UniProtKB/TrEMBL annotation:
This is Beta-lactamase domain protein. It comes from Sphaerobacter thermophilus (strain ATCC 49802 / DSM 20745 / KCCM 41009 / NCIMB 13125 / S 6022). Pfam families: Lactamase_B, WHD_BLACT. Coiled coil: none annotated. Residues 24-194 form the Metallo-beta-lactamase domain. InterPro entries: LACTB2_WH (IPR041516), Metallo-B-lactamas (IPR001279), RibonucZ/Hydroxyglut_hydro (IPR036866), Sec-metab_biosynth-thioest (IPR050662), WH-like_DNA-bd_sf (IPR036388).
Length: 281
């Protein structure tokens, strides 16, 4: 399916993310080595990443940056966008559903344009379709290269670990639908926001869906066995959890419970720290 020389046109630039994640964030620069011309930067990373991106651009001969595209507004993808915009004059694009997340960044994020589902970006002879893929974040967008299926995947998938879902801006139901949406679209290689390239995108998307559904059943089984709180569920599901991952694990378990509640399978009693959960069917 791959008909263009994608590898030479999409450069992965690992940028520091201030310790938010174990792994660096993969920023991507889309450029044309033969034609030169303007480039597009996807997910410049945290504020600490700006220097790294500028150095990578300098190596390419300082081409003009036409657009800064954000897959979502989490700090480890978006916080450096303002400084890069300042340095290059390029506008920032974000889906409006992620504005509530953008507002939680320490520094304001100057969003110039709203991304739309289905919007097209042509750069370096490639055509990218923006595909709205909520779940990890409400306004999460991936960029699918139309001819090759190569996809700049943001945090929809992770090259190595799993993806955290953080309600209320994240939703397990939406996340599962987004994985399926991308699978139906016939993507090929996935270039994730963290970790190595995923060569077999469809297999990974299928595995992610199966993993989430298996996790949902595991949670239902623990509830049936009398485990009733999120901390106790997390302790059973992730016995060797590193302290830095506790928040993500609790949020993701809550996201599963939220879906089970919506499905009418679980009832929540009490709120916040006191909340308990019960399987009803
Ligand atoms: Zn994220």
């Amino acid at each position: 399916m791959e008909t263009v020389d994608i590898a030479s046109k999409i450069i992965s630039v690992p940028v520091p993310n201030d310790g938010i994640m174990e792994e660096e964030t993969n920023a991507y620069i889309v450029h044309s080595p033969e034609q030169g011309g303007p480039v597009v930067v996807v997910d410049p990373g945290s504020a600490a990443g700006t220097e790294v991106i500028l150095a990578a651009l300098a190596k390419l001969g300082d081409p003009p940056v036409r657009d800064i595209l954000l897959t979502h507004a989490h700090v480890d993808h978006a916080a450096g966008a303002a400084a890069l915009r300042e340095a290059t004059g390029a506008p920032i694009w974000l889906h409006p559903d992620d504005l509530p997340v953008a507002e939680r960044l320490k520094e304001p994020l100057p969003v110039d344009h709203y991304l739309k589902d289905g919007q097209t970006f042509e750069v370096a002879g490639l055509v990218f379709d923006a595909v709205l893929t909520p779940g990890h974040a409400a306004g999460h967008v991936v960029f699918v290269e139309r001819n090759s299926g190569v996809t700049l995947a943001g945090d929809l998938v992770h090259g190595r670990g799993t993806v955290g879902i953080f309600p209320p801006y994240g939703s397990m139901r939406a996340y599962l639908a987004s994985l399926q949406r991308l699978l139906d679209r016939g993507v090929t290689r996935l270039l994730p926001g963290h970790g190595p390239v995923i060569d077999n995108g469809p297999a990974t998307l299928r595995r992610y869906i199966e993993h989430r559904l298996a996790r949902e059943e595991q949670i239902a089984e623990y509830l049936a066995a009398g485990v009733t709180t999120i901390p106790d569920l997390v302790a059973r599901i992730y016995p060797d959890l590193a302290p830095r991952n506790v928040y993500a694990a609790r949020s993701t378990v809550y996201a599963h419970l939220e879906k089970l509640i919506e499905d009418g399978r679980v009832i929540q009693e009490g709120a916040d720290e006191q909340a308990t959960y019960r399987l009803v069917r």
